[in-house]
Structure formats: structure tokens, C-alpha cells
Amino acid sequence: MKITLIAGARPNFMKIAPIIRAIEIAQKNGQEIHFRLVHTGQHYDDKLSKVFFEELGIPEAQVNLGAGSGTQAEQTGKIMIEFEKDLIANPVDLVVVVGDVNSTMACTIVAKKLNTKVAHVEGGIRSFDMAMPEEINRIVTDSLADYFFTTSLVANENLKKTGTKDSQLFFVGNTMIDSLIANLTKIRKPTIWDEVKLQAGNYFVLTLHRPSNVDDLTKFSKLMESIDNGSGVPVIFPVHPRTRKNFSVLTNKPLNIIPVDPLSYLEFIYLIKNGKAVITDSGGVQEETTVLGIPCITLRNNTERPETVSIGTNEMIGENMDSLADAFKKVNAGNWKKGAIPELWDGRTAQRIVDILVKLKL
């Protein structure tokens, strides 16, 4: 079997790395499975791409499509044009896409138009919020894919409601957690730890990247003020370059919030694992905090990962600053829920995926 694996943006890299390792193990065990890695170039900055390949042990991609930045349509269009050329030149039995970024949707469309089967790792997750670009990517990808490797039984049910057959569905767990578990012994202190003399359990980690939270300066300013007032301890904020501009022009400079450049994967997990709690609008961070048992305050009104709320350590705060203040009080008083780890989030998801792939009759 010949497979093309698609990776394009930072969240993809953590999901694809364990699959590559599992394929390499299967090859050593005599399985006829071969992969070609395509990097779409959706994330191209070294801090968002190269360092993740190095830390996660991802081999150099056979090709980088060089998509770069641009509007949603520009980026999607560039990926489709370049991936079509690559897939025509390098036909395979199956294209494997992961997650819900523009690369996921773009490469799925191209593959299906070239009559190539598609497997979607992390299929079926839904926020039911059409204002999220990722939700559109998920819906389009899942409407076209042939096979679905899901992180939860909720995702299975979402797909069944749209007519997906049981024979297409494989509940395998979460490859993001495979990467987390595999790298826990390798995590390392970022330089900010010693620079500001951080102490384990006595700081928050903040991640924000959704336009609804960071692009409107007035809203962003109020959010920064609420976090600054409620935390009571340092808040380490790895800032996306786009957000750094708004942070730099805040009228009331936060006293507790410390902006830093984007961190590597191993540095970021170190901060989460040793922090008091995380404040985020990210999907993946909701999963990582759940497995690490760290309180997660999510600044969104919905989540495509409901198991992190019903089972894990995540709580949805939305845009209500009173709720955010209450969340800080709960964390600082030690009254946050303990949570548990969802089913099959055990570090062996990629192995299950590859075991299934080698048995597919393509």
C-alpha cells in the first residue's frame, strides 16, 4: 500500500509524527506499507514548523508545496494547485489527512477529484459553529473522505448522523496524545522560566489565536485586563506575531501577563505540565491539559472536543468576564474539578491506525 500523509500547520505535526513512527515499525515487521510526506507549507516560520519536525523526529518531507500565508481562499487555492501537481506525479492508494486546517480540506478535495481514497484522522469532531473556519474544513473533509479515524464515540455519532457507514468508522483514540505521552520525558524549560523565576504551580499559561478574541482591539484589551486582574500570579503568553501588534499598543499595560515568542513543542508542554492552569481558545490545548490533569479555562462558547469538558479538566467560559473571574477564584482556591482521561487516549492510537490501514482492501 502506498500512502501520502499531509501535514501543513503546527497542530498537524503532533498528529502526524506518531503515525510515521507506527508505519516505520510496521515496515520493519514486514508489512507492505509505504508513505510519502507532503508538507503544504501552510505554516512556514521555523518556530511554527522546522522546530516541530526536529523535536518530534519527523523526517524531511518529500515535498514542500510552499503555500505560505494569504486569505483563506488564497491559501486553500495555492495548496490545491500545488498538491494536484504532486499527486498526479506521485499517485498513491490513499491520502491521509489530519485535523481541520486549510491543508486538510484542500488536499481532500484534490484527492477525491483525482479518484484517490481519503482517510481523515480526527474525523467527526464538531463545534457546530459555522463562524469557525475549522468547522467548515471539517464538514467538507468529512463529506468527502472514505475512512474516519475518530477520537471519541461522540465523533462517531456525528458522522453516523450524516450517513457514514459503520464500515468506514474506526474509533482509535487521539494521535495528539500519542505525541504528548511519547515526549513527556523530553520536555525542557524555556528560557522565560529562569528569566522571571517561575515556580511550579504558581503561574498560568495563556494561548489566544482566534480572530474573535485577538483582532478586535477593544475586546482584546478588556480580555487582557480581566486576565491580568484575576490571575494574581504571572501569566506566560506565547504570542502569535499577528497578536503581538495589538498587545504592544494596549493602553493599560498588564502587570502579570508576560508575552513571549512562540515556544517549541517541548517547551510549551513543560510550561503546561508545571503550571497552575491554562487559559486558552485552542482545541488541542484542551486535550493536552485533560491528559496532564491541569485545569483548562477555555475562552469560547463551544468546543469540538466535548469529552474534555464531560470527562476532563476543561470548562467553557465563553466571553463572560464574570465567569472568567469566577474561574480564577476556583483555580486559586484549589477547587477545580480533577477530571479523567478519555477512552483510548493511551498513547497507542497511531499503532491502531496503521494496523487498520494495512488490512484495508484498496
3D architecture notes:
This protein has two domains: 2-173 and 345-357, Rossmann fold (3-Layer(aba) Sandwich), CATH 3.40.50; 191-332, 3-Layer(aba) Sandwich (Rossmann fold). With 362 residues, the protein is of the alpha/beta class. Helices cover 45% and strands 15% of the residues. It is globular and about 55 Å long. A seven-stranded parallel beta sheet has the order 3-2-1-4-5-6-7, with helices on both faces. Strands 10-9-8-11-12-13 form a six-stranded parallel beta sheet, sandwiched between helices.
Largest sheet: 7 strands, parallel
- Specify the CATH class of the largest domain: Alpha Beta
CATH architecture grouping of the largest domain: 3-Layer(aba) Sandwich
* Number of strand segments: 13
Fraction in beta strands: 5-15%
Structural class call reads alpha/beta
What topology does this entry show?
Blueprint: E1 2-7, H1 10-28, E2 34-39, H2 50-56, E3 63-64, H3 72-89, E4 94-98, H4 102-113, E5 117-121, H5 133-144, E6 147-150, H6 153-160, E7 169-171, H7 175-183, H8 191-195, E8 204-207, H9 211-214, H10 217-231, E9 235-238, H11 241-248, E10 257-260, H12 265-274, E11 277-280, H13 283-292, E12 296-298, H14 307-310, E13 314-316, H15 321-332, H16 349-357
Parallel strand pairs: 1-2, 1-4, 2-3, 4-5, 5-6, 6-7, 8-9, 8-11, 9-10, 11-12, 12-13
Helix pairs in contact: 1-7, 1-16, 3-4, 4-5, 10-15
